[in-house]
Amino acid sequence: MTSNVNFLAKAGLQTLIDNLVSLGYECIGPQVRDHAIVYDVITNIADLPVGIIDIQSPGQYRLEQTGDKNYFRWNNGPQAIKPLVFKPEEPIWSCQKSPDGNLRFEKNMISVKKRAVIGVRACDIAALFLQDKHFLHDHNKDEYYRDRRQELLLIAANCTKSAATCFCNSTGDGPRAHYGYDISLTELADGLLVHTLSEQGENVIKELELRTASQEELAEADSLINEAAEQQRSLPSHNLKDMLFSKLKDARWQQIAERCLSCGNCTSVCPTCFCHSENEKPAMNGEVSQHTRQWDSCFSQEHSYIHGITIRSETQYRYRQWLTHKFGSWHDQYGRCGCVGCGRCISWCPVGIDVTEELNAFANGA
Amino acid sequence: MKPRVAVHKFASCDGCQLAFLNAGEDLLTISTLVELVHFAEAGPVDPDARVDIAFIEGSITTPHDIDRIQRIRKNCKYLVTIGACATAGGLQALRNYANAEQWVPEIYAQPEYIQSLDTSTPIRDHVDVDFELWGCPISTQQLLVVLRDMLSNIKPHIRQEKVCMECKRNQNICVMVTQGSPCMGPVTQAGCGAICPGVGRDCYACFGPSENANTTALANRFEGFGFLPQDIIRRFRFINNNATVYKAEAEKWSAKND
Predict the structure, then answer these.
(1) Which residues of B touch A262 (CB under 8 A)?
(2) Which of B49, B47, B43 is closest to B27 using CA atoms?
(3) For B197, what's the count of Cα atoms within 13 Å in the CB-facing half-sphere?
(4) Using CA atoms, how far apart are residues A365 and B148, in angstroms rounded to an integer?
(5) Chain B residue numbers touching A78 (CB-CB < 8 A)
(6) Can you tell me the ipTM of this complex?
(7) Under a CB-based contact definition with an 8 Å cutoff, are residues B17 and B90 in contact?
(8) CA separation for the pair B248, B143 (Å, rounded)
(9) Residue A13 belongs to what H/E stretch?
(10) B-chain residues within 8 Å CB-CB of A61?
(11) Using the beta-carbon criterion (under 8 Å), do A350 and B168 form an inter-chain contact?
(12) Nearest-angstrom CA–CA distance, B207 and A89
């Protein structure tokens, strides 16, 4: 972020939102709901979490009003982009019995809106790119994901603070967004630095009251982002595959299982987890059935149910599956680790199991 | 010939039978698919009719109940329990922790008219049960799945995943993580639609234990939040107090409390 970085007064955010709306985008932005930051439709900057910060620790998430005028000083909530592109539950097709006794299948068609998401974090963009690898394989593109994905305009917010649970610096995915966004914002004390990476982004900002950012402003942004990179948690190394696969019989899996609820909260909030199950919803008359897919988890029984046998009946095998896939076999599958360091699985685990603590313990042979 | 169906009631509040009556248009469809031969709450009364499927609401709390459930079992091909009472003994199983000899005279002026067992027990303790549907009350949606699957001659498919899975799919915000509420969702079967966390309160386990419920880890967490053993006991000794895993967890904390 050296050249063509512009400065925008904070009030200019409203114009940004108005421009998005007039260009036909549904504008999605961060806001406070039920004690957390969530992403939902936004039309007014007064709905942004002004002055709000998030205090996160294992199994705990609290919001605090600081009284300052920052819009993006918080880090994250339980979800960001994933539910916008990979719906928690949706019908895929339906099946109907014809009078001649044959079955007729019909695909569920969706109509997709142009959407702009304000305030996405570097880790969320990295996670989206990982989901792209999964859902947009060369020959097996998921049409539901693809249609929603290509209508997405991303407005990143570089992190100027880290939560205690963040470790994106260690995965290499943050706190500064380097790719994948249309527009990026860095919030300073008195304004925002604006940068674009796409024509669509350029089109959105062209009517804003911008001026070229000063050296002092660029330095202020660097200093804030560098501060955010000072994080309390980290992974033992980038590629943990060999280490984890050498520990498959370690006693620690069972020790974790004693604390783990196998509730699936970690995988539901994980921005890269993509597992789902498919279910039939037959109509009472037995003539029609709707086929839906819904978020599932390697922590649920049915995830490993194959023809009368549950392969991973015990929690220790479910936790091991999650960890060895995300941090191990993901490298073979998608060419990198499946974790982007957002720390959601740590905060939103109801009993506060810390994935970085467990990985470090395995790596250190504890 | 249409399959014959009976809906029987034991000790219960009648609320689970309402899952049939609240089915709306599907109730009309059901009436064309099956013959409802006994369903007192809806009209038809023929308690000793031979049927293909008997749905049982309520728990066993009197000597007469024991005779009745045996007769029903003999008269049906499949027996399905509906609700917390029939499946786990219900809220009224709290009596299993009390002394009936003592409290009956305290409540009733003429206790000699009360012919009640000392316990409230699930149907499974008395006869073979083919399928158990949990909930207080059960969900109409799940009931329809069970009936539809049985009419299609397949084993009913009801997921036993945790409430958390449904809760997260609904995009609810976790009340345990944001408020330190003693939510039972992580050890409770889904199916309700995560109603309580959806309105910002903690789940109280009315759908009974999920598969692979780690009640000890959850109870330890509640203790970490500052709840006392008697608070923790009450979380587990509620609507499904007699469900095996909840009962065992409550007993552990009861021993700590002594």
Answers:
(1) 162, 212, 214
(2) B43
(3) 33
(4) 53
(5) 168, 173-174
(6) 0.96
(7) no
(8) 28
(9) helix A12-22
(10) 174, 177-178
(11) no
(12) 21
Class of domain B4-151: alpha beta
Residues of B with CB under 8 A from a CB of A: 23, 26, 29-30, 33, 144-145, 147-149, 151-152, 159-162, 164-165, 168-174, 176-180, 183, 185-187, 200, 211-212, 214, 216-218, 220-221
Residues of chain B contacting A265 with CB distance shorter than 8 Å: 164, 168, 174, 186
Residues A209 and A194: their CA atoms lie apart, in Å, by 11
Check if the beta carbon of residue A187 is closer than 8 Å to that of residue A71.
yes
Our measurement of the distance from residue A183's CA atom to the centroid of its chain's CA atoms, rounded to an integer in Å, reads 18
Structure tokens, A146: 């693809």
A-B contacts (CB, under 8 Å): 123
Alpha carbon A249 to chain centroid, angstroms: 31
Q: Cα separation of B156 and A280, whole Å?
A: 12
Give the Å distances, CA to CA, from A349 to A230, A260, A307. 23, 9, 31
Question: Cis before residue B47, ω within 30 degrees of 0?
Answer: no
pLDDT in tens, chain B (258 residues): 899 999 999 999 999 999 999 999 999 999 999 999 999 999 999 999 999 999 999 999 999 999 999 999 999 999 999 999 999 999 999 999 999 888 889 989 999 999 999 999 999 999 999 999 999 999 999 999 999 999 999 999 999 999 999 999 999 999 999 999 999 999 999 999 999 999 999 999 999 999 999 999 999 999 999 999 999 999 999 999 999 999 999 999 999 877
Query: Which residues of chain A are within 8 Å of residue B215 when distances are taken between CB atoms?
Result: none
Residue ranges matching CATH 3.40.50.700 in chain B: 4-151
A262 CA: distance to closest CA in chain B (Å):
8
Give the whole-angstrom CA distance, residue A55 versus residue A10: 24
Do residue B214 and residue A315 have CB atoms under 8 angstroms apart?
A: yes
